[in-house]
Amino acid sequence: MMHGPGGPRFLLEQQTSKPKNVFSTLGRFASYFRPYWLVLLLVAVCMVVGAWAQVTSPDLTGQVVDCYLTPALAGNTQALGGLAGASNQSANTNCWYATVNPNRTMDETVAGLGGLILLLVGLYVGGAILGGLQFFLMTWAGQHVLTKIRVQIFEHIHRLSLSYYAENEAGNVMSRITNDTDTIQQAISFALINVVSGALLLVWIAFNMLHKSIAYALLSMAVVPLMIVATTWFSGQARKAFRRTRKEIGNVNANLQESIAGVREVQAFNREQANISEFERTNAANRDANIRAVSFTAALAPTLEALGYLAIAIVVVAGGLALLRNQDLFGTTVSLGLIVTFLAYVQRFNQPIQQISVMWTNIQSAIAGGERIFELLDIEPAIKDKPNAMAMPQIQGKVEFVDVAAEYVKGEPVLNGISLCADPGQTVAIVGPTGAGKTTIINLIPRFYDVTGGEVRIDDIDVRDVTRESLRKQIGIVLQDTFLFSDTVMNNIRFGRLDATDEEVIAAAKLVHADSFIERLPKKYDTLLGERGAGISQGQRQLISIARAALANPRILILDEATSSVDTRTERLIQQALEKLLHGRTSFVIAHRLSTIRNADQVLVIQDGKLVERGKHDELLAKGGVYHDLYMSQFRREEQPSSAKAGLPVAAE
User: pLDDT tens for residues 13-47?
Assistant: First the structure.
């Protein structure tokens, strides 16, 4: 299989890279969210109201002190001295919920204080409810968007041409649907909400702090530059470390996949201990990489927390000294309530900084994942229908190659100057050494690949002028590497024609003599097969695949080593079935068995991408050319057992 530039390791590096075009990617995401604008509006409302509740609660806490506690103390004792005086000076500027009245009765003070506390409790509870609601609404919208994206990717990968899968591993394509979308899901459900709400809270708190006292606010936020530096450094180191973990977990998965897939070879060659040692090595490397990554991530939170405590200390020391000395702080009158308010502000200010620092890496990973998804969706299939492509009429079966050239990699021809004609109902056998271009010929007929020169015509119609769907629905294919799905035998045969009745499925199975072993299965046609048809033999899988092609009733049949994996008795049964199946249909057979080639109407000999000989078996054998040499080295041994059994002389080698 061909791989893209750099192979799997390069792709692992890509998975941990930073996003390249943030705004373009966010714009494409926004188009998916457009149908859910009302839900997003509710999320925004919840976010704003929730942020207002968090910003307002510190102010109300300060008012509890300035408007109710310190005025009451000032009216009843002189013990607080300057503290009470300072509170009285600033009370009118800090109290908007209630006015300062030192002559209030105790009942009035308790009632007012109780109302303010109830309001605070209401803000906390309301903020928690709104936070949960916005999380639910965003998750609901995000899940709908992710479902749509997954469906789009799934539809798109079915439209991509086979050339894409020849250059890209299936696991890497699957990661777009699984890993990348999971990263986006985490960001939409949790990280994005935290980052946006945290940024809003930061701006709002900073505005309130500056509005109350510019000097005190600047002192309180003096450690913010240090937080930014710490966040940048730790996040950068963590990103590098996590990049390493992704590479190492890729090695672990690759090692595990190979060991499971090749368990028979491992046991046959006594490689168990060697494989275990190799797995321990790669697993240890993954462990060390994860510990390093987690170390940087774990160090960030306490670092920011320590800087947060430093900010609190600055607030307490600067405000406390000014309060105790009954002095202004750079023109700002300091009250005990103002200090309490700023303490709460600083605590709330530090929390979103920590949230954003932790979640921003997830946001970047999600945006990078979105880029990879959109890159996949933007890939144009190499094989597309023309804008004016027509539906293929009912195929009669004439197939022509007119001076056909083909290549998979530009400048490296696989076929060159191939011209042939198969009349309706003819069987064409294609033979030649490995890599000669046999499979390429049959891939051009259903237009899995396009020619780079010449034409492929069916019933005098260029296959590029018709839609792929209408063309392929009239062509049946049985490959050497049979693929069966994890489904019932009935549904595997029905795969080529979903509207077929049970009776038609059973008739197709009987036609290719598959019913004899199906009837012996535990649940007969309702037996559930394992992955790739696990639970039955290779020959039985091949029979089901041939029954699938028979049920589709195609006008053109392509058989790629259709009988290569069955025993001689089963092969005879299949050959009898194929004689019925091929009657009246044009068929192209790639075969390495003489029994198939003998009955062909034409034998095409392909060598180095060129058609070097054509004719019937006996004619080509009599020529003594390429086919004769191929026969002597490959096919002749098949005749010897049957000739010897019949008492016929065997020619000398």
Answer: 334 445 556 677 778 888 888 898 899 899 889 88
CATH number of the domain enclosing 228: 1.20.1560.10
Residue in 28, 43, 213, 32 with CA at minimum distance from that of residue 135: 43
For residue 619, being part of any structural domain is answered with: no
How many domains in the chain?
1
CB 255 within 8 A of CB 279: yes
Range of the domain at 341: 19-244+297-378
| pLDDT value of residue 12 | 38
Separation of alpha carbons 453 and 468, rounded Å = 19
3-state secondary structure of 307: helix
Q: Answer for the pair 230, 285: CB distance below 8 angstroms, yes or no.
A: no
Position 645 scores a pLDDT of 41
* Residues 346, 311: Cα–Cα separation, whole Å: 7
Q: Please say if the pLDDT value at position 457 is more than 50.
A: yes
Angle at 635 between CA 631 and CA 638, to 5 degrees: 145
The token pair that represents 625 in the structure block? 């050319």
DSSP code per residue over 258-293:
HHHHTHHHHHHTT-HHHHHHHHHHHHHHHHHHHHHH
CA distance 360 to 238: 12
The CA distance from 475 to 285, in Å, is 50
pLDDT tens track for 225-265: 888 788 778 777 776 776 677 667 667 766 676 677 677 67
Backbone angles phi, psi at 195, to 5 degrees: -65, -45
Alpha carbons 410 and 485: distance in angstroms, whole number = 35
Q: Is residue 128 part of a domain?
A: yes
pLDDT for the residue numbered 38: 92
The first and second tokens of residue 167, run together, are: 């250059």
Q: Is residue 585 a part of any domain in this protein?
A: no
